[in-house]
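From the methods appendix. Each design record in this collection lists the tokenized structure first, followed by the designed amino acid sequence. Records were kept in a plain field format so they could be parsed without special tools. The example shown here is representative of the layout used throughout.

RECORD:
FOLD TOKENS (164 positions):
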């Protein structure tokens, strides 16, 4: 068994979407390589920081992430596997990249209770007013609004229903 710790600087960005690992980002990799009958078992962790924008309010975000990985690199033989030992070496790049990119969030947010953007003005909503704003009425349904607004008749009809 051998243990290694090293830092890798990315030559190109990893991941596509609203968050990714940027070019020149540093990944701290701790790996343990164990010799087993079928090949070499590689297990470890990757510590890195992803960056991008919030999925709700579009502000810039950067968050740390820790990813665990484990894979068996098989000795070359008759069966073909995804990961093989080549010339007594294992190539961790594909394994680490796949594990790191799959750990990226699908809907990243700057904070758990991010309110997003105002649909009317496009401004960032920073605080909750505590009251819900009335949704605009579709003009096709505005005729129904006139029925309920006729001199309080909607309230009297509701009261009649409760009594019966």
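DESIGN:
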């Amino acid at each position: 068994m051998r243990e290694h710790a090293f830092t890798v600087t990315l030559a190109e960005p990893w991941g596509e979407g609203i968050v990714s690992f940027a070019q020149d980002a540093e990944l701290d990799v701790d790996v343990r390589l164990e010799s087993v009958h079928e090949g070499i078992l590689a297990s470890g962790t990757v510590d890195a920081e992803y960056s991008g924008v919030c999925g709700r309010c579009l502000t810039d975000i950067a968050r740390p992430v820790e990813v665990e990985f484990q894979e068996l690199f098989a000795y070359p033989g008759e069966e073909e596997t995804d990961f093989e030992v080549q010339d007594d070496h294992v190539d961790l790049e594909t394994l680490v990249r796949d594990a790191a990119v799959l750990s990226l969030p699908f809907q990243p947010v700057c904070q758990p209770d991010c309110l997003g953007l105002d649909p009317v003005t496009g401004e960032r909503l920073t605080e909750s007013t505590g009251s819900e704003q009335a949704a605009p009425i579709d003009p096709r349904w505005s005729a129904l609004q006139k029925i309920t607004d006729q001199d309080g008749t909607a309230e009297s009809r509701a009261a009649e229903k409760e009594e019966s």
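APPENDIX NOTE: The first strand starts at residue 2 and ends at 9.
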